[in-house]
Specification:
Blueprint: H1 2-33, H2 37-59, H3 64-96, H4 99-109, H5 122-125, H6 127-134, H7 138-171, H8 173-185, H9 190-229, H10 240-249, H11 257-276, H12 282-307, H13 314-328, H14 332-356
């Protein structure tokens, strides 16, 4: 009896020591990698974008490494390039929006007077331009260029590490999944079921909704350009590419997101037509028919159902995309939906069991 008790105490102390070691190791890893949380979440997002393509390649007898390399080169790198181009276009078009042009737009929308809360002066719209104008020395330019170069090098390094992380996730996903299920959570358990539901939800959010937003951006840019080609003289949609990006991002707002953008453009074009030529009022009408009726109908009927599915209420997705960046920063646009998926599935699958017990 005493021997068994001593053996049990020794085993308990051994397990406790390993748990303490694991906890300390986890704390060290979390503390060390805390600055890379955004890039890790971005890597998980890219993994879900790449995974369907890699799986199709493996089904066609490509090896795991070959499928991962092809996916990284032909899907992920172009996709990241598109994201960078879209962000650059938005920044450049915002920068090229001169203060005088901004003031013209505001005056068109507010013909009775510009509200005091609307910034129109150049120093209010472009604080950096004002700072550079007041101190146009060689040293200030060099300092600014050094900061930009430092930020670029750091971002490039983090992006390189992220792409390596995505490569190994795509290549070794089957082995990682099997190890996690067999060694950590067990097969056909409630935890296994919950993990599979999270995986399916993240695939729907990250892959489906991302493709939906990008498709809307591209198609909106094409339609805006075509509409400008038939626009009356002096009556054109301003900042086409920037508005296309805004249209795609506004799609996360259910029912009214894109309509807010369309309505703002219609009001701007209508006021401009009234001030210049009443005959040109046909153009705002045509714009709304093309974008608000035909294009939106295609999105609701074909694009959104085929790409994004209906796993989660659109209201939850809206708050995840809007509150994520506010709460966590730039990577919140990826971390917010991830947390939303985990919380929603927990409430749906596990919380009722915890409150009411196992069903009989």
């Amino acid at each position: 009896m005493d021997s068994n008790d001593g053996f049990g105490d020794k085993r308990l102390r051994s397990q406790l020591s390993w748990w303490v070691f694991g906890l300390v190791l986890a704390i060290i890893l979390v503390y060390t990698l805390r600055g890379y949380l955004g890039w890790i979440v971005f890597g998980v997002f890219l993994y879900y974008v790449a995974r369907p393509v890699a799986r199709q390649l493996r089904q066609r007898w490509f090896s795991e490494s070959t499928a991962a390399i092809i996916t990284l080169g032909l899907v992920i790198l172009p996709f990241v390039g598109i994201l960078i181009i879209l962000a650059s276009i938005a920044i450049v078009q915002l920068a090229t929006l001169d203060a005088t042009d901004f003031e013209l737009i505001v005056e068109t929308l507010f013909p009775d007077g510009i509200p005091d809360t609307v910034p129109t002066a150049e120093e209010e719209v472009y604080p950096f331009v004002e700072d550079l104008a007041t101190d146009p020395s060689f040293g200030s330019v060099i300092e600014w260029g050094g900061d930009v170069l430092s930020a670029f090098v750091a971002a490039a390094y983090n992006m390189f590490i992220t792409l390596i992380f995505v490569f190994f996730l795509v290549r070794d996903e089957q082995r990682l999944a099997e190890w996690f299920r067999l060694e950590m959570i067990g097969e056909r358990t409630r935890v296994d079921e919950f993990a599979q539901a999270i995986d399916k939800g993240l695939s729907s959010i990250f892959f489906g909704y991302t493709l939906t937003i990008l498709a809307i951006m591209v198609l909106a840019a094409i339609l805006y350009t075509l509409l400008n080609a038939i626009a009356p003289a002096g009556l054109a949609i301003p900042q086409v590419l920037l508005l296309a990006i805004i249209t795609g991002l506004a799609s996360v707002i259910p029912l009214i997101g894109r309509n807010i953008v369309y309505a703002a453009i219609v009001v701007y074009l209508a006021v401009l037509a009234i001030q210049t030529d009443l005959v040109a009022l046909w153009f705002p009408v045509v714009f709304y028919v093309v974008m608000g009726v035909l294009f939106d109908g295609v999105i609701r009927t074909y694009i959104r159902p085929s790409l994004s599915g209906r796993m989660f209420p659109t209201g939850l997705i809206l708050f995840a995309y809007i509150l994520g960046p506010v709460a966590f920063g730039w990577y919140g646009i990826f971390l917010g939906p991830l947390l939303m998926v985990a919380a929603t599935l927990f409430v749906q699958m596990e919380l009722p069991r915890l409150l009411h017990g196992e069903p009989k």
